[in-house]
Amino acid sequence: MLLKLLQTQTDAAQAAANSEPVEKSLSIIELITSGGLAGQLIIAVLFVLLIIACYIYFERLFAIKAASKVDANFMNQIKDHVSNGKIEAAQLLCAQLNTPVSRLIGKGISRIGKPLADINTAIENAGRLEIYGLEKNVSILATISGAAPMIGFLGTVVGMILAIFELANSGGTIQMDVLAGGLYTAMTTTVAGLIVGIVAYIAYNHLVVRTDKVVYQMEANSLEFLDHLNEPT
Fold this sequence. Notes:
With 233 residues, the chain is mainly alpha-helical. It has helices spanning 2-18, 28-33, 36-67, 74-83, 87-97, 100-110, 116-134, 138-168, 176-230. The relative contact order is 0.15. This is MotA/TolQ/ExbB proton channel family protein. Its main location: membrane.
């Protein structure tokens, strides 16, 4: 009896040791692949949106950075050329720089001799075109920042539907591994959508701030040019 009792205790200890939960690590790749086909498709769409957002951000960032480069002595040279009647030299200088500010001033120089109101209107129209060029494709970032979380939430709804479907068809026996697939879809797509949305939102606002600085720079130089033309000779 004693040996039998000891053997029973030994078997119980081994069974308890074998039943101890094993800590499981889950990589990002496993987390995505565990979400099923629906989750993988939504993750793929969000990944494409992330690539598009990053491309637009860096492309616009470099373009805006190049547009903001203006020689500190540019306006002084323009004023000297205009005061001395060297209109062609002033236009040549604007063409050489080829920046939004220089193109605005060049547009104003090409209208010298006409009323000041006409020169101002020409500069304003050219300024609108320059701003449109600076803001090219930036609105897509705003769209992605709003659409990505919604796409992620769509994955959440799909995942919950799959989980509920499995519960309804389990016949009273719930298989946790099957149920987990729907929950993986729900959670991973939500996280992915939020990440893409946050990245696109930050990128959009940063580009807006940088664009506003260039617009202010254009306005300041245009006003300085118009004030120079308005000075009594």
